Inverse folding.
């Protein structure tokens, strides 16, 4: 089982200038196998989150171990300065379509995966200034069975940021006040 979490930072600016300032993906680094109900750690050093060099984009995955290499190769295609996967590609939907097409080419219907899998892509579109940047999240999912199709869905970026209340020993674990965009 894998853990993949995304979260966003919000600028501490006047409300009319506020926006998402940063995006993060975090994950565990374990690869495990399961046979007859017994879970065995296969690796403790897997890379499950990735960052582009030439574009504001990060990726993460849960599921089949093969995606470590698939996403590494995807980044090589994106990071090419001329003729790369994102060149002449504007907007999150166009980028997501190219990512899905790449995933279908590398792990298409004829490929059986070791686990149901999800690839997460978080990108940023600059709208003219840093205060106008907009983040987008896309999730691409596929069942492990050969013959399964990739599906994609855009996920709404949260508009509220907050931090947990200080743990004072009480059972109340609600969130403290945060900042709303």
């Amino acid at each position: 089982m894998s853990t993949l979490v995304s979260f966003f930072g919000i600028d501490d600016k006047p409300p009319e200038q506020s926006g998402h300032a940063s995006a993060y993906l975090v994950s565990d680094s374990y690869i495990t196998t399961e046979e007859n109900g017994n879970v065995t750690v296969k690796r403790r050093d897997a890379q499950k989150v990735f960052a582009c060099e030439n574009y504001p984009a990060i990726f993460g995955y849960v599921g089949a171990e093969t995606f470590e290499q698939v996403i590494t190769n995807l980044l090589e295609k994106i990071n090419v300065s001329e003729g790369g996967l994102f060149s002449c590609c504007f907007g999150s939907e166009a980028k997501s379509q190219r990512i899905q097409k790449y995933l279908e080419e590398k792990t298409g219907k004829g490929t059986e995966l070791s686990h149901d899998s999800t690839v997460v892509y978080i990108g940023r579109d600059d709208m003219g200034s840093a205060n106008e940047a907009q983040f987008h999240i896309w999730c691409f999912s596929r069942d492990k069975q050969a013959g399964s199709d990739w599906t994609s869905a855009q996920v709404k970026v949260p508009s509220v940021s907050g931090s947990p209340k200080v743990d004072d020993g009480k059972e109340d674990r609600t969130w403290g006040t945060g900042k709303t965009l």
